[in-house]
Write a structure and sequence with these properties.
- The strands form 3 sheets. The chain has a 5-stranded antiparallel beta sheet with strand order 1-7-8-9-10. Strands 2, 3, 4, 5 and 6 form a 5-stranded antiparallel beta sheet that branches.
- Helices cover 15% and strands 43% of the residues.
- It is globular.
- It has one domain.
- By secondary structure, it is an alpha+beta fold.
- Strand 5 and strand 6 form a beta hairpin.
Length: 217
């Protein structure tokens, strides 16, 4: 029961927002706080793609980051172009424990569903996009509405994603994603995970309790 509570807590703590692709349209998360006063907001904006040959809706995903000193940075994560009214969703999981990375998920519905984990490295100024459907080899089809969240990283820098068990098209459990072309690897009980930074005391309490139980049993 405790793993399910932890996953629900992560979903509740992650900043989420969604909206249909319209012209114009926008949706953004609430602010996620990081170590040392850093802050981040995840935003998606949409508009007509202005193509003369087709009537599609373009979406632009951006990460807005501010440091403790007030400096701001706008990071372009992804631009997509597809049907009007498709669902656009953003999930900001937060900062890595060391404050050097910002993690989250970009999703789109419709006939060509998309589920991408983004991993932004603040110092280098680079972003990596990991395709969940490709890495897991499932989640295919518009009717697969699986719940998932980025919950942290491994000691070697891999991204850890947890999937809920509410839909049979998704393999429930914890999975490690790497930038390489390798498929995701399921994490075994007892695997070490560096949980994402959060200033939510209740969530931290749940995490510490779960970590103790996970290693004991």
């Amino acid at each position: 029961m405790l793993p399910l509570l932890l996953f629900a807590a992560w979903l509740a703590s992650a900043q989420q927002a969604s909206a249909p692709c319209t012209s114009p349209g926008t949706a953004e998360t609430q602010t996620a706080r990081g170590p040392g006063g850093a802050a981040a907001v995840l935003k998606v904006s949409s508009e007509d793609d202005h193509s003369k040959e087709q009537h599609l809706c373009s979406a632009q995903y951006q990460l807005l980051i501010s440091g403790a000193g007030g400096e701001q940075r706008v990071v372009d994560l992804l631009t997509s172009d597809d049907a009007y009214e498709r669902k656009l969703s953003v999930q900001l999981s937060g900062f890595s424990r060391d404050g050097r990375r910002v993690l989250g998920i970009l999703s789109e519905g419709g006939e060509h569903p998309v589920s991408l984990v983004f991993d932004y490295h603040i110092i280098e100024g680079t972003v990596q996009l990991l395709d969940l459907r490709e890495k897991l080899g499932v989640l295919a089809g518009a009717n697969c509405d699986a719940q998932f969240a980025v919950i942290g990283t491994t000691g070697k820098g891999g991204v850890v994603v947890e999937l809920g068990a509410q839909n049979p098209c998704a393999p429930a459990g914890r999975w490690r994603l790497e930038v390489s072309g390798k498929r995701a690897q399921r994490l075994l009980p007892g695997a070490s995970i560096l949980s994402s930074y959060t200033d939510n005391k209740c969530l931290n309490d749940i995490w510490h309790t779960f970590s103790w139980s996970w290693h004991i049993f």
